[in-house]
Structures are given as C-alpha cells and as structure tokens.
Amino acid sequence: MEKSINQRYVLTEPILPMLSGMLYNGKDLPLRRDVVFFVVESTDEAAKEAYIRKLREVAPLSDNRFLHILDVGMEPNYIFAVLKTFDGKPFIQELKGHRFTPEEAVSKVLELGKGLMDALEEGISGCSVHAANLWLNDDGQLKIINYWEKGTHAQRGAQGLGCLLYQILTRSESIPVSFDTIEHRLREALVAIPSVEQELLIATLRRVWNDQETLASFMLVLQSLRQDTAVRQEVSKPVRERQVQEKTEPERAYEEEDPAEEEEAPPRRSLGRAGRKLLVGTAIACLGGAAAFVWLGKDREEPSGKGVSPAQTEHYAPVQPSHHTYDKPAGPEVVSDPNQKKAEDKIVIVPNLIGLQNDTAGKQAIAAGLRYGFDIVANEREEGTVFKQEPAAHTQVTKGTEIKYWVSKGKQP
Questions:
Q1: What CATH number has the domain bearing residue 56?
Q2: How far is it, in rounded angstroms, from Cα 195 to Cα 207?
Q3: Strand bridging mode 134-137 / 78-84
Q4: What is the mean pLDDT of the chain?
Q5: CB-based contact 176:206 (threshold 8 Å)
Q6: Confidence of residue 315 (pLDDT cuts 50, 70, 90)
Q7: Taking the C-alpha atoms of 247, 250, 254 and 258 in order, what is their torsion angle to the nearest 10 degrees?
Q8: b/e for 81-96, b at 16 or more Cβ within 10 A?
C-alpha cells in the first residue's frame, strides 16, 4: 500500500499493530530518507488536538534510547508522528529467536533504565518498556518506540524493566499474573546457571514484582551484576593473555596526573543525569547486599588441589550450625597491616533480607560485612523464607555487627 500525507510523506507498508495505533514504514520525499510512522485513527477533533499536544511535549527528547520524533500532524481521520528510523525491526518480532546471553540481557535492560531516568529529568515518565514497545537495532541496541503514552503498572518503571528482563531470558511475549509462575519459568530458562546465582537473581525480581525496589535501586543491582561479570571475565582470562595485556598497556597509570588536566576533564555519566539526583538518597541504602549479586560464575566452589589464584582463595570458611550464630572467619592475623583497624571500623548498610531463602540471606549478610544468626519459627510465609530481621534493612551499622533474622518453618497445625 502507498498513502500520501501532505504531499511530503508516503506510507508504504504496515510494520506492527500497537496498543493505540499502527506502525508503518514510509518515506520523507523532500529529504529522500526512510522514516517510521506511528498512526492513530481518530475523527474527534478535540481528541486529536490533545494527542498532538502530548506528542509535541515529548518531541524535544533526543536520548538515543528512544525513537526520535521528527514531525507530527493531523489528517481528517488520523494523527501521525514521524519517527527517525534505524536498521532493524520491532523487538517483539525477534523475541523468540534472539541470541542474547543472560549477561547481555542485563546490560540491555540496564541501558533502557538509564534512558528512563534521563527522560524523567525531562518530565517524561511512565512509558512502557514491554517488548512490544521496543525497537531492536541491527547492532543489538533496544529503543523505546512510544514514550508519550503511559504503560500499565507492570510495563513501566522498575517493574516494567523486571518484566522485560523476564521476557528476554524466557523469550516470552506475555507476562504471567503470578510471580510463582515467573519463578518457575525463570528456573527453566536459567537451568545452566548455578543455584546460588539463580536464587540471587530471582530474589531481586521478586522484590521488584512486590514493589520493594525503586527504579534507582534496581539500576544499582543491574549495574552490580554487569560489573561482576566484567571482573569474572577478566579473572578467567588465561594468565599469558593477562600478562601480554599488562605489558602492552600504557604506563601512564603509574604517572602522577596533572591537577590542571583533572579539573578540565568532563564529568563521567554513569546512570544518567536524573540518576545522579535519584541515587543520592537511595544509592547505598537500597541494597547493602548488592555486591553479593555475583553473576554467572563468581562465588562458585573450586575443587581443591588445583591452581587457584589468590583472589579465588579468599572465601569464608564453612559456617557452623551451632546456636544458629555465624561469624565471619577472622583469617590469619596481620599485625603489621595499618589498614586493618580502619576496615574494622567501617560503617556498612544492613541489606534487606526479607523474602530471601535462608542460605541466600546468610550469604548477603556476609557479603555486607556482617555476622548473622537466625531462628526458625512458625509463620504464614513459605517454609525457609525470611520474614523478619533486626536491625532493619538500610540501617547503618559498624562492620562485623551481628544481624538476626527469622525464618519461617511454615504454618503449624
């Protein structure tokens, strides 16, 4: 089909039906370029005017994680928005056949989250990040198509990103109504991942599902997962390859930097402009145990007797079950280390253990630099699930403080 608009644009073929309109391929004749059209049918003049205002409000957004609006207009029976096109296609068409690894899935969701936080600073919020509202570039980047309409609660913000991560990992177009179903399917999709890492990821997504994570705190978890992956990949390099890399790297790292150059260097962006504002109050408090989110290989047990690097041997000794109290092993005493006293006096943030399984909660406590103890009592929560803790999550305490939590043994007759 071909349909002319204002003697400038031509709609060539439909691409994808969307919630409130249709996506079309098309051409901008004067500029001789391909574009994408978002078309909404309507004959109500007041409704069309309101929709045009909505489009114009978000049109200045130029973040590269969104399809840019180039033009908007009205015809007697419809409204249209001209969007900048990119090589690729709607992500929903590739969802079942994509080849993203779990690490890549985390990175892509993290990048979209940064885009949401930057858009928030421009007054744009609530858009859907469901797979059906995303464009997949040929280079693998995901972009949000419609960002002027609000998505449902399960499609926007932290929960929307959590659901998108589920969609990518399970290659599923629909989102189950029950998190128990989500958990079951995630375990099937992540069967090759060690059980400890499965528990950490699923526990995070459960908190997101229950609205116990903000967008900012969820971004920190994803950032931690990506950083842990990079560290693991570096450690897993063959020794010879790391030695060659160290020899070929410039020696500037060992030179004293010029203070004047430091002052002129532009600031780095990590989680976006809005991220810097939103994370001030939540960055550390959101997840004291975020560092425990070890992705795909970290924190695995290594068989004894094989060459293990010093970094791999710094594991805690097995905990003892007596009295349900667990201390971090003190390790060998180093009297001459001047930093030891400083480490002992360090203030840490108590992680949120509620909703985690018993063994996972203990690992998070240790990762946060705390000792822990627990009691197992009757409770309505699922057996083996933490339902109470002291001190409360996000509290500041001295490193080495004991945190106590209560684990459900299920309902008792």
A1: 3.30.200.20
A2: 18
A3: unpaired
A4: 77
A5: no
A6: very low
A7: 180
A8: bbbebbebebbbebbe
- What distance in Å separates the CA atoms of residue 56 and residue 38, rounded to the nearest whole number? 14
The two tokens of residue 172 are 């599923």
Q: Which long-range contacts (CB under 8 A, 24 or more apart) does 181-184 make?
A: 182/209
Angstrom CA distances, 386 to 172, 275, 314, 400, 402, stand at 30, 31, 27, 21, 16
Q: Which residue has the tokens 């410039």?
A: 250
List, in sequence order, every residue forming a beta bridge with 13; answer none if it has no partner.
Answer: 25
Overall average pLDDT of the 101-121 stretch:
92
Query: Does any domain span residue 253?
Result: no
Work out how many domains the chain is built from and give that number: 3
**Position 321 in a domain:** no
Cβ–Cβ < 8 Å for 167, 175: yes
DSSP summary character for residue 144: E
Measured over the CA atoms of residue 222, residue 286, residue 404 and residue 331, the dihedral's sign is positive
Lowest mean pLDDT among 27-36, 86-95, 145-154, 276-285: 276-285
Sheet holding 325-326, edge to edge: 325-326, 371-377, 402-408, 386-390
**How far is the C-alpha of 225 from the C-alpha of 287, rounded, in Å?**
13
Question: Do 50 and 95 belong together in one domain?
Answer: no
The amino acid sitting at 210 is: N
The DSSP annotation for 392-403 comes to PTT-EEETT-EE
Residue-wise DSSP of 59-88:
TT---TTBPPEEEEEEETTEEEEEEE--SE
Domain that holds residue 66: 3-84
In a domain, 334, yes or no: no
pLDDT-above-70 percentage for the chain: 70
Task: Give the CA diameter of the chain.
Answer: 83
CB 299 within 8 A of CB 198: no
8-state DSSP, 302: P
Report whether 144 contacts 119 (CB < 8 A). no
Q: What is the sign of the dihedral through the CA atoms of 356, 359, 362 and 366?
A: negative
Q: Which region, left, alpha or beta, applies to residue 354 given φ > 0 means left and ψ of -120 to 50 means alpha?
A: beta
Element (DSSP H or E) covering residue 104: helix 102-121
Rounded to 10°, the helix 195-209/179-189 angle is 150
DSSP annotation of 133 reads G
Cα–Cα dist 310/390, whole Å: 34
CA distance 193 to 191: 5
In a domain, 9, yes or no: yes
